[in-house]
Amino acid sequence: MLQQLESVKSKWGGKSQVIDRWLMDRQALLVSFCELAGINKRSECLPDPDEIDNFCSALLDYLSVGHFEVFDMLVENDNEGLALRDKLYPRLTKTTDAALAFNDTFAQAVTPEQAAEFDSALAKLGETLEERFALEDELIAHVHTKRRDPEVTL
Questions:
Q1: How confident is the model at residue 5 (pLDDT cuts 50, 70, 90)?
Q2: Dihedral over Cα of 92, 95, 101, 103: its sign
Q3: Which one of 47, 107, 143, 153 is least enclosed by Cβ atoms within 10 Å?
Q4: Which H/E stretch holds residue 101?
């Protein structure tokens, strides 16, 4: 996911403050995800509850910015963009629902039963985020293909 993000940043970065900020938020979310997943760590225990809570907060913030600030702005006043939005929104909503379910399960204190499922739930969330980022990248590519320059500051 980080390699895909770097590819998107190198291709579309620097053309819009909105998109640059959104991609920086995505990068921060991915770094937090990797830390939570224990990538590059050799630990068998659950992450600290504060780490889980911080990740869930970052996840909700990222999802909110996408849904309430960025998506519509990327396709406004553009019939092709609106058609793309109509095509992608059901899939984006599905990824949002999955991320919200993860948050609802793990943002508060993790029970022993939940702890047993944490690694598999986090792996599934990783797959969901990968799908979501690909969909978001389609919206970003559309903006730049249409040579629009959304310069709204988040």
A1: low
A2: negative
A3: 153
A4: helix 79-106
